[in-house]
Amino acid sequence: SHMADINEGYKFSWHQDTPHCNVQSSSSNTPATLVYLGEAPSKNILAGVYAKASATTLGTTAEDRFCVLYRNGANVHRFELPTTKSITGTTISRGKNFMEPEK
Fold first, then answer.
1. Of the candidates 80, 66, 62, which has an alpha carbon nearest to the alpha carbon of residue 18?
2. What is the pLDDT of residues 42-93, one digit of tens each?
3. How confident is the model at residue 11 (pLDDT cuts 50, 70, 90)?
4. What is the Cα gyration radius of the chain?
5. Sheet containing 31-39: order of strands
6. 3-state secondary structure the chain
7. In angstroms, how far is the first alpha carbon of the chain from the final one?
8. Strand partners, 33
9. Rounded to two decimals, what is the model's pTM?
10. Which residues pair with 16 in a beta bridge?
11. How many other CB atoms are found less than 10 A from the CB of residue 50?
């Protein structure tokens, strides 16, 4: 699964070569970024922070090595973008904005 090594354990760490990372896997010493957004943040805040983390790590050795976490009651959850498009809702994608005119 995504970042399975972090699920096995991590330690807080920072290094100037990966300034956007704040943890390191205990098993592989691979850097990653964990962002905790507290109790029940809105989907818009979760999606916005996810997009910023994605943009920050894009093109780096830590690309796609980030988790946006939040608490809902006693449980901590990882926010992930929906993998399927909804015709009634909006989702964030790196693709073209469908509202823009064709060129």
1. 62
2. 999 999 999 999 998 888 888 889 999 999 999 999 998 876 555 555 555 4
3. very high
4. 16
5. 10-12, 23-25, 31-39, 66-72, 75-79
6. CCCHHHHCCEEECCECCECCCCEEECCCCCEEEEEEEEECCCHHHHHHHHHHHHHHHCCCCCCCCEEEEEEECCEEEEECCCCCCCCCCCCCCCCCCCCCCCC
7. 39
8. 66
9. 0.70
10. none
11. 19
CA–CA separation, 15 vs 51, rounded Å? 23
Residue with tokens 């929906």: 82
Token pair belonging to 52: 């910023």
Q: Which amino acid is at 26?
A: S
**Tokens matching residue 29:** 């010493």
Q: And the tokens for 33?
A: 């970024």
